[in-house]
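[Automated response] Your request has been received and processed.

Submitted sequence:
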Amino acid sequence: CFDLSGMTTPTLSFNLALDIEDCGAALCDAAWVEYSTDGNTWNKLGTVGSGTNWYNKNYSGFHLWSNDEYGRWHVATSALPTTNNSRLRLRFVFASDQVLNKEGMGVDDIHIYDNIYGIYTVTGTSPVVNQATVNGNNWINFIETGTNKLIASILPNNQDLGSTNVQSYIQTGPIRDNGTQYYHHRNITIKPTNNSLGATATVRFYFLDSETEALIGAVGCNSCTKPSWFGELGVSKYSDPNDAVEDGDLGNSVGTYWSFITPANVKKVPFDKGYYAEFQVQNFSEFWLNDGWVNGITPLPVELKTFTATKTANRKNVLAAWTTSTEINVNRFEVEMAKGNDGLSQDRFVKIGEVAAAGNSTTEQHYQFVDEELNKAGVRHYRLKIIDDDGKIEYSAIRPVIFSDEIRWQVFPNPSDAVFNFIYQLNAGEAMNLQLYDAMGRVVYRRKLEGNGFVQKLPVDLGASVYSKGVYLLEAVSGEKRESFRLIKN
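Generated structure:
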């Protein structure tokens, strides 16, 4: 139970990741949040668009998440009840239909707080926000008075920073880069009277999810690195002896005054329409968000350009082939394989081979490995385990190869008054033709499908009035394989 009765603007934020089946107009998988003020009656929290990234579908008034392209973490924020909330309970609800194996729903970093101010969002250079006294052991917020929104917060940790000025610089247009890295639309400066401290102070740097999404999606600079999700953001820090140079402009931030606070040392907390980055410093500066040093030194170990797994000419073996664009301190590649759809869903990957890496390279490198195990059957799933010199591990995407059917092509439910789900599995790129015949032998529906190696589901919707009740024949053809299904529409 949460007692929120002392809050004026109680708010829930958390990190959300979804890989659940989205069937478009039909409902297959769904997730949502519920609350109770008495422990007995449960109510849905929020509606589509009522918060930040809060629900993406409205099925006849039923608001929920149903998304198979939300696999990396995003903030989700919703207001909480403001009355009768002294014993508030929350629960996450997940519903799924059968057959397909997906990752599901991930929830992390649950944050319940009084969202009195929210994050400052005005683009351009903000007015100077001053706090005349920054000392003690409580958080001191820097709130722009025109909007009453937060730019930064400081916990002095019982040190005296004196009078302190804070400013925000928020850009618009294309994501900025310095030729080697993209960097965030937002940066800030913090300038206290007493700049050098005997111990560390803690800073909170507030930024938006939308700004980070723009950074992740940046294009145009082929030589530039960027984060693949917000968790890879670190803080680049520029501390010039001349305070006037700390003006939100990267162009005059030169010399040896750069340092980098690595992502592991920057806590990102879901808050309002985005996050705050929380980190410790012993002096103050310009602060920038990016995935490595703004002056070009990047911690990324490898950029994997392609990875494929295909049958060899004899149809008995599998060739795993991959290409890297760049490598920095990469030690080796281990090829892992999981047998069957159950092996994939239970993460039963085992090492079947190893290939040494070039180590350090700025040109394309090509690698391959052949799986020669005898008597292959079912579906085999391949991935790369990429290991760098200091032991850091990354994984590639998974590539399935089908040697024999593990699942039967099938249709469910049957009979149905509207949607019939057709379940199938084909190798990546393998084509299938699907045709539906009515009782008179006329083709009333056709579709060309392409496999991706995984179990797939196609909803065949016969709910429209043009499809009368009765018996239909669904025919599926892929290569030499042909199957027919008798469908009964109620």
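Summary generated for your ticket: Residues 294-301 have pLDDT under 50 and may be disordered. Residues 382 and 399 are 5 Å apart (CA to CA).
If you did not submit this request, please reply to this message.
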